[in-house]
Amino acid sequence: MGHASEGGFFSRRKGTTQAVTVHALKGVSVDFHQGEYIAIMGASGSGKSTMLNLLGCLDRPTSGQYILGDKDVAQLSDDELSEVRSRYIGFIFQSYNLIQQYTVTENIQLPLTYQGSGEITEEVERRTQELARMVGLHERLDHRPNQLSGGQQQRVAIARSLINDPYIILADEATGNLDTKTSHEIMEMLGKLNDGGKTIIMVTHEDDIAEHAKRIIRMRDGQIIDDGPSPRMQALAAANGVSHT
């Protein structure tokens, strides 16, 4: 995973992981730089979801290293892992994972409950409203998930992922339950977040979704088989007379 600019935040994953006797990742060594926009692709069982779970500190590698910033994830306690997730990482899931009895406001603020007191200050309320406006839901703050469309629920999930101002956004098939138009609206939103400096790492099996990224990693049988700029970035480089080798 290389190395970000001085003082930057980056992560490095090396080695293998296994579940029971199945090696989900084998001999993987990869760098992710601060500010990248990456799509991880592969068929079911390719290891892409395991990769995302490791990056999100939801799983630990059983061998090798995962360096997140300056921390070796494999050496952290459960409490330390929870703190890393809370401070550095925002999650967006295919099934939204909203709490049905909570309002939009309460769902957006949910990650704060994992940070000590979870006190809802004026600053938290201001940021909640700011995020809701950013995702176009500022008039639905008192609604509950069953009063929202799938696209609106995913917008709540995006706002929730940003409430702690994380370095990294991890998206697991974030458009999998959405129609084509809504999917591309969500991808445009992620693109704007990346333009603003957020690192985006997403798992998808859809080529048209992956092409929104700037870098595409393809996996098969727990290994990386290809890693390079997306077609969009290749076309942009060609137009500017730059060659990727």
Automatic annotation (TrEMBL):
GO-annotated molecular function: ATP binding; ATP hydrolysis activity; transmembrane transporter activity
Record bears the keyword ATP-binding: yes
Protein name: ABC transporter ATP-binding protein
GO CC annotation: membrane protein complex; plasma membrane
Keywords: ATP-binding, Nucleotide-binding, Transport
Superkingdom of the source species: Bacteria
PANTHER family listed in its UniProt record: ABC TRANSPORTER ABCH.1, IMPORT ATP-BINDING PROTEIN
Family membership noted in the UniProt record: Belongs to the ABC transporter superfamily. Macrolide exporter (TC 3.A.1.122) family.
InterPro entries with a match to the protein in the record: AAA+_ATPase, ABC_transporter-like_ATP-bd, ABC_transporter-like_CS, ABC_transpr_LolD-like, MacB-like_ATP-bd, P-loop_NTPase
SMART domains cross-referenced by the UniProt entry: AAA
Domain ABC transporter, chain residue ranges per copy: 10-245
